[in-house]
Fold this sequence. Notes:
Blueprint: H1 2-15, H2 18-31, E1 46-48, E2 51-53, E3 57-59, H3 70-75, E4 80-86, E5 99-102, E6 107-110, H4 119-128, E7 136-140, H5 149-160, E8 167-170, H6 185-206, E9 211-215, H7 221-233, E10 238-241, H8 255-258, E11 263-266, H9 270-284, E12 290-293, H10 299-307, E13 312-315, H11 317-322, H12 325-341, H13 354-358
Parallel strand pairs: 3-4, 3-13, 4-7, 7-8, 8-9, 9-10, 10-12, 12-13
Antiparallel strand pairs: 1-2, 5-6, 6-11
Helix pairs in contact: 1-2, 5-6, 6-7, 7-9, 10-12
Amino acid sequence: MIGLLERLARPFLHALDPEGAHGLAIKMLKFAPLPSALRDDKRLALRVFGLNFPNPVGIAAGFDKNAEVPDALLRLGFGFVEVGTITPKPQPGNPRPRLFRLDADHGVINRLGFNSQGADAALRRLAARSNAGGVVGINVGANKDSADRVADYVQLIERFAAVASYVTVNISSPNTPGLRNLQQASMLDDLLARVVDARERVSPNAGPTPVLLKIAPDLSLGDLDDVVGIARSRRVDGMIVGNTTVARPPNLLETAIAEEAGGLSGRPLYPLANRMLAETYVRVEGVFPLIGAGGIDSGATALAKIRSGASLIQVYSGLVFRGLGLIAEIKNALLEALGDDGQDTLEEFIGADAAAVTAEPWPK
Length: 364
C-alpha cells in the first residue's frame, strides 16, 4: 500500500517546486492510513547512546521540522526520527525560493534558515505522543536575531529533555549568519559546558537525555581536532557528521542551480561527508558513537558509511530521488552483508574501513 501510494504521488510531487512538494508530503503523512511498521530482523538492532534502535536507518532533521509526523515516519520503517531544527521562538527563515533540486546530480541546495514554528508548537506535539514509543530525537538551533545564542540552546535543552529520546545541538547550518562560529574552540567549549550542565540540571525530572553535536563537513582537520577534543572533554554522548556543505564539487552537472547560495546535500556531498566521518571516528577513539549523514542514496553507500565509522545513519535528500524504497534497500543490503560475513550484528562493521578512508586522496 505504501509503495503504491508513493508511486502514484512521486511524479506529482516532482512537478511541484521543492518546498511546495515538501509541504504536501508532510500533509500526506498526517492523513495517510499507514499500517504499523513490520518488525525488523533482530540482527539490525543496535543499542547506541543508551537507546534501543530496531534498525540503524534514521531520517535526518530538516524533513519534519516542527514535529508534525514522527510516528508516521516510524511506521514507514525508520529506526529513528530526528525532528527539527526547532528554535525557541517562531521564525520564518529566509525568503523563498530557498530550496533547489539538482536533478542531474541527485543533489539538493537549501538556504531555509531554520524556518520554525517555535518551541511551544513542537513541545505540545511531542508531549502528546510521549507514550507512543520509538526513538524520536530533537534537533535544536538558535534564533537568527537572538542576543545570546548559547542561552537559546540551554533553554531548549531544559524544555525538551523530558520528551526527547536525544537532543542534537545544531551549530553547523550554513544558513543562519554566524552560527558556524560556534564551532570555534573557545565558543564551543562554553556552549557545550552550559548545555551539558542544563541537561544534568533537569535530569532528576527528565531522566537521562543524550546530547549530540552536529558538525559541518567543511571544518579543517585542525578545527576538527579542536571540536572532537572539546566534545570528548565535555562528555557529549555523540556527534552527527555532518551537515550540508557550502562547497561545490567541480563535477556538478546542474551548473546554473549550483550557483544558488546555501548548503548542498545529496549524492554530491557523499565523498566529503564520508571522509569527515572517518576522520572524526579515528579522533573519537571509541569514546562515543557517531551518526553518519550526507549523501546516502543506496544500500552500498549506507554500508560504506557504517564501515567508515557510523553506528547509525540518517537519510533525507536520497529519499527525494530514490523514494521510500530506499529504506528497505538499505536494510536488505545490511542483512546481505551480515550474511556474507557470517556476522550476527552490525557492530563488527562500525569503523572497519575508517583508517583506510583517511589514507585516501582528499575528495574534490
